Amino acid sequence: MAIVMITGCSRPSGFGQRTARAFANAGHTVYATMRKPERGEPLERDAGAEGLSISVIEQDVTDPGSNRRAVEAVLERSGRIDVLVNNAAIGGFGAVESVSDEKFREVFETNFFGAVDATRAVLPAMREQGTGRVVFVTSLAGCIGLPGEASYSASKFALEGLAEALSYEVKRFGVDVSIVAPAFFDTGMSANTDTTGQYEAGTAYDRFNEHIAKATVEGENEGEDPELVAAMIVEAATTSEPKLRWWPGEQGPGLAAARRAMDDAEWQPMLISEMGLGWWVEGREPES
Fold this sequence. Notes:
By secondary structure, the chain is of the alpha/beta class. The protein has ten helices and seven strands. The chain has a single domain, classed as Rossmann fold (3-Layer(aba) Sandwich), CATH 3.40.50. The model has no long low-confidence stretch (mean pLDDT 94).
């Protein structure tokens, strides 16, 4: 059985806690990390009552010292780390011109640089073991630039490139890298994001930003079951035939394939229509 470390496990409805449970239910030893470990007390308590091996430890992926302390804590308790799941992420809403530099950097610090540093903290132990799996939870937004979510999309695009490049670099050490790219899943992430603090109000983009925030929450609420993502992360991390890219659910693979098959002239009008942005692009008033 594997020793598994999963970042970003603070929300009960998120991929992190669901993935922690999925690994533990399969008999693996799980370390669920989060910035505020007190938020994980119910998870740890319930796991204990169910006989599942889930321990909550503190980790702020944006703090290099915290990443290394978390890794050291796992190694001290279990002696090895077989799987790292880079799951920690925050959302980002708003047209590019209306989002502050600070907000762009905040999204990248968690979604991209946090994953970079957490991975670099774990790799020495995996190299010494001669084996390991690193799973990056990206997004369909890392393959398709989504209007109104440029900061989030950009951070996930960057993570996709990092993961693919890393996969070649660490293969010789027995470490495999996988990307799990969810599309639309009902995790409550967007609903729990304070959109009022994401972008500047009183700009030319107010109606656009309001539309994107509302449509994203609605789309997420109608999304697929997040348990599908948790199950696929476990599969990607434990299969005897590892591969680079995994697409959970039904929506993501179809949209990604459509994007690859279409040129820009075909794709862009389709995306505008799907996102209900015809009024914006054409300079009309928003539809009721």
